[in-house]
């Protein structure tokens, strides 16, 4: 599953909750500023991947005639091109490796800037952050589906993409995430 921009705020809250409840991590600054920094780092990673996707799309659009002439599979070309350019954009393609990298960045930044303090091994804290992201990612799909199913049962038909739809979907989505203990 791909990390998306809308996930950043929820993932950052989940990480913050797990850090607060951890017996081996001391939070040294206010909750809002820690959550803000977590979200910023996650958002930077997501934006790097978005820039990579845009560059790959641009490259493939420039070769559209050749792709059609050779009857090449666009999705396969997209994936191969993305893998080739990933290092240039600082994007890790493998999801587990990427989540591990994000976890390290978060732990290092929060510790170095004195947002958190711990006296256990770095790996314990990194694993706490990694597990928070991983659990969220697994629960996200289910919460998303449940929120969508609830919207379909509304008497008033909502059109996807409208402001009303987005407001109601986000509210239902957050309710499902809360039920699952993800935020």
Helix-strand sequence = HEHHHHEHH
* Rounded average pLDDT: 91
| Terminal residue distance | 19 Å
Helix share, percent = over 70%
Topology:
Blueprint: H1 7-21, E1 25-27, H2 31-62, H3 64-69, H4 74-89, H5 95-112, E2 116-118, H6 122-152, H7 163-179
Antiparallel strand pairs: 1-2
Helix pairs in contact: 1-2, 1-6, 2-4, 2-5, 5-6, 6-7
Quick structural overview:
The chain has a domain at 7-133. The chain is mainly alpha-helical.
Architecture overview:
Strands 1-2 form a two-stranded antiparallel sheet. The longest helix has about 30 residues, at about 30-60. The protein starts with 6 loop residues before the first helix and ends with a helix. It has helices at about 5-20, 30-60, 65-70, 75-90, 95-110, 120-150, 165-180; strands spanning about 25, 115-120. With about 180 residues, the chain is mostly helical. The radius of gyration is 19 Å and the shape is flat. It has a domain at about 5-135. About 75% of the residues lie in helices and about 5% in strands. The protein has 7 helices and 2 strands.
Quickly list its features.
flat; mainly alpha; 74% helix; 183 residues
